[in-house]
Known about the structure:
Layout: E1 12-18, E2 21-26, E3 38-43, E4 48-54, E5 63-69, E6 72-77, E7 81-84, E8 91-94
Antiparallel strand pairs: 1-2, 2-3, 3-4, 5-6, 6-7, 7-8
Amino acid sequence: DQVSFPFDTYVTQGGTMRDGKIWYAYGFGKTGTLTPSRVRVYDTDSHQVTARYELEGIINEELEDISIYNGHILLNTNSSKIYELTDTFKKTSDK
């Protein structure tokens, strides 16, 4: 199967796939530009974007990758910070 998803953000970074969904991180973390930090979740079964996380002003570092580990969604940045994507988007640890 081949799917094309709508593209509504710039600067593709890393992604991961889990349970039929592709989690993708975007952006340089620059507030007020076309490149703020964002996450999109693409469902390969329904061919829909199922979630959009706008992290402008919350994560101001460049997102490098996203990973899911033990039920935690982790965002690696180009700084020494790793964030956990939660309802409050809290920083969880340093590298």
